[in-house]
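Researcher: Good morning. I'm working through a list of sequences from a screen, and I'd like to move beyond sequence-only analysis. For each chain I'm collecting a predicted structure so we can compare shapes side by side. This is the next one on the list. No need for commentary yet; just the structure.
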Amino acid sequence: MGSMSQIMSMIPGFGANLITKGKEKESAEKIKRYLYMMDSMTNDELDTKKPLIPSRIERLARGSGTTVKEVTDMICDYKRMAKIVEKMGKAGLGKMADMQNVSSIL
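Model: Good morning. Structure tokens for this chain:
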């Protein structure tokens, strides 16, 4: 099937930031840390129904054994991905059938 970086590079806007070529181990660790952070979130936080104020970000960092900066980086990556997915949906790429329009989204 290919390495993690090859697979992630097929997803528009994803591969460049999360999985960098030659650094698959570090990127896999980053994904694990993101999972630990998400495990520390409540259902409302995961569903973005409850805003992540600084005190809640600190709680997430403590609960996941990460730093506040790592939590804010994860939130920024999430927002970036959410925008890309939203644009893909608006462009009719929800099923990824029409890959020719991907470059116009990014």
